[in-house]
Design brief:
207 residues; mainly alpha; 7 helices
Length: 207
């Protein structure tokens, strides 16, 4: 069954690659190669869409990372507390660290959305509007992915902290230091998002 799945995946990749090569050669040999224009495709998309995608990625990935981390660490805390009830209250700090990841995403989404404003786009968008849209997209993606990885790192470390604390109380503080360093990853993503969008101006349109 696994070999059949491998053959099907290889056939699908080959079909997609062959179709892409055929389309490229067709456009090139018929004198319409300029239609394959990545820059024109990016400019045809509204900068509002790029900005909204960035904000959605920012808060979406952050919340997913926080929820995933809470799921991982929370299940270990509850499982360990069945045998060692004393670890339940102390290890809730891991849940708080995971929740902070989602708060990072919410804060940055609010900051990014402040740069979106209604403009009259009958005359098109200015280059500044496109810069703002692209910067919001990549800034939001950077923040979201950083918080997603941060949530996983904190969740896994928190789960191990609960297990270690159930075995030996002295190990909790040592692993907590590692967990704090893991939570800083989300703060780094927040800083990167601010740097990427720092020079982005509000939408103005073409006057």
């Amino acid at each position: 069954m696994s070999s059949y799945g491998g053959y099907a995946k290889t056939a699908l990749h080959s079909a997609v690659t062959g179709l892409a090569i055929w389309a490229g050669l067709y456009l090139l040999l018929t004198g319409r190669g300029e239609r394959f224009n990545v820059g024109g495709y990016l400019l045809r998309i509204s900068p509002y869409m790029w900005g909204l995608y960035g904000i959605a990625f920012c808060i979406g990935f952050s919340v997913v990372g926080a929820a995933w981390g809470i799921f991982i660490s929370g299940s270990s805390i509850l499982g360990g507390a069945v045998r060692t009830p004393r670890i339940a209250t102390k290890n809730l700090i891991s849940i708080i660290f995971c929740e902070v990841v989602a708060i990072y995403g919410v804060i940055m989404a609010i900051v990014f959305s402040a740069k979106l404003g209604a403009v009259n786009s009958e005359n098109g968008f200015s280059s500044s509007d496109y810069y703002t849209g692209f910067s919001l997209f990549w800034g939001g993606l950077a923040v979201g992915l950083s918080n997603l990885i941060c949530g996983l790192a904190v969740g896994i470390t928190g789960a191990n902290a609960a297990t270690a604390d159930a075995h030996d109380q002295q190990l909790f503080v040592k692993i907590l230091v590692i967990e704090i360093f893991g939570s800083v990853i989300g703060l780094f993503g927040l800083i990167v998002g601010l740097l990427v969008t720092g020079k982005a101006e509000d939408f103005a349109g073409v006057v």
